[in-house]
Amino acid sequence: MTIVKRLLVAAVGALALAAPALAAGGDQHHPEEHTWSFEGPFGTFDRAAVRRGFQVYQNVCAACHSMKLLSIRNLGEKNGPFRVMPDPEHEGEVIEYTNPNDNPYLRAIAANYIIVDGPDSAGEMFERTGRPSDRFPSPFANEQQARASNGGAYPPDFSVIVKARHQGPEYIRSLLLGYGHEVPHDVHVAPGQYYNPYFPGGKLAMPPQLREGIVDYEGDIEATPEQMAHDVVAFLSWASDPKMEERKQLGLMVMIYLFIFAILMWFAYRAVWANVEH
Fold first, then answer.
1. 239: phi then psi, degrees, rounded to nearest 5
2. Could you say which of 45, 91, 186, 253 is the most buried, measured as most Cβ atoms within 10 Å of its Cβ?
3. Quick check: 60 pLDDT over 60?
């Protein structure tokens, strides 16, 4: 058998093996398109939406989903959602907290967590109030406890969940709002499972999370499921790539530099070869 024939046989075999998987996932709905402020080469994060999204994460998601790669202080670092905040002493003014450890908003957030630390001088572990320098604590002590509390399913970490999923922002938003569809006749949903056409396979252990009244927003923004889904995805997108705006700014400067450099090189080329016959 020639090499070409062997390659053809291997390709046919791979397609045959992939066909059942493609068929099984064929009923998964394509995520709905949505407009995000951070899209495009000049897009930036909507800080107000990211802060509201953090509120949704705290009140809805943090009971099951960890954020192991994110520290509380990251919220107040450069381009973080809590770096520039309303001045508590002067209404209508804002203040920039350059040191996250001195940021009263971050200290208040950290104070909501109890951190297991140690060992102390006696070799014992102890509990203390959280500090901005701490990472967000996981809601479960280990994977086994997490699975036992969620019907055998292991809730994924949310640190980089947007980057870890294809069409991350649209997928997560569609998933959060995708409950309530009629279950197809050929799909069996077992007790403890929920049907969601945006999830691979259509069945997952997570019940609907966003409902009216679960979060209270400040100001005139109404905490509808659609608004909460938008906001929490904005927060998770920031958490997955907190340096995005810096990268875009650097990329823009590099492109401007290369453009100017190309013009200078063109003039240099003209000057060097001006008196040379072609």
1. -60, -35
2. 45
3. yes
Q: How far apart are CA 161 and CA 67, in angstroms?
A: 9
Helices (H) and strands (E) in the chain, counts: 8, 6
How far apart (Å, rounded) are the C-alpha atoms in residues 78 and 95? Answer: 14
Tokens 């967000």 sit on residue: 136
Distance CA 232, CA 51 (A): 9
Spell out the domain ranges in the chain: 24-244, 245-272
Residue type (1 letter), 111: A
Cα distances (Å, whole numbers) of residue 122 to 3, 95, 107, 117, 257: 69, 43, 28, 13, 59
- pLDDT confidence band for 275 (50 / 70 / 90): confident
Residue 206 burial (CB count, 10 A): 18
CATH of domain 24-244: 1.10.760.10
